[in-house]
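Re: the request from the purification team.
They wanted to know what the chain is likely to look like in 3D before they choose a buffer screen. I agreed to run a prediction and write the result into the notebook, where they can find it.
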Amino acid sequence: MSLVYDVMKNLLPESDKIRRVYCGLREPKTTPTPLLFSPPTILLLGRLSSEKGFDVAIHAFSFLREQGSDARLLIAGEG
């Protein structure tokens, strides 16, 4: 049992509307190997709108660059 599920059941023991939903991925049958990116690349993928917070990521990325990182920022999406 998960902690959140246990807490919810304790808070609302009479509720029949609490359901556990498993949304995880199955473990791969092979051992994954790390992808090597040189320089490191950060990918932001999503709808390009203000509420998605891409501006925050861009601002945070600027701090990486100021610290001397050679990382790249790649943003993709529509909107």
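For the purification team: The mean pLDDT is 81.
Please add any questions underneath this entry.
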